[in-house]
Structure formats: C-alpha cells, structure tokens
Amino acid sequence: MVTTRIDLARLPHAARAAIEERTGPLLSIEETAEGFNSEIAARVTSATGT
Questions:
Q1: What pLDDT shows up at residue 17?
Q2: N or C: which end of the chain has fewer CB within 10 A?
Q3: SS3 label, residue 8
Q4: SS3 per residue for 13-47
C-alpha cells in the first residue's frame, strides 16, 4: 500500500520544535520518496550531528 507523503513545510510547528528540542537546530532536510508506512520521509542533519 502506497503512503501519501506530506511536504515538510506542512509539518506542524509543534512537531518540528519537538524534534529540534532533542536534536538541536535542523541544518538540512532532504526529503525522500523511499520508506514505508510514514507520511514523512527525510534525511535530516542537525547542529549536533544527530
């Protein structure tokens, strides 16, 4: 079953803030079409390298 992806720009602010709280500021986000069972699939690089 194909999952419809949403653009990261549509990610709720609270969700991005929760991610950055754990990882530090996000430096780059590369969206990807690969992966299953998730509305968002991306490779993310943060200021802390996580």
A1: 92
A2: N
A3: helix
A4: HHHHHHHHHHHCCEEEEEECCCCCCCCCCEEEEEC
For the record, the structure tokens of 33 come out as 């079409």
- Whether pTM exceeds 0.70: no
CA distance 5 to 27: 21
Give the whole-angstrom CA distance, residue 37 versus residue 22.
23
pLDDT per position as a tens digit, 1-50: 666 777 777 778 998 899 899 989 888 888 777 766 777 777 888 888 76
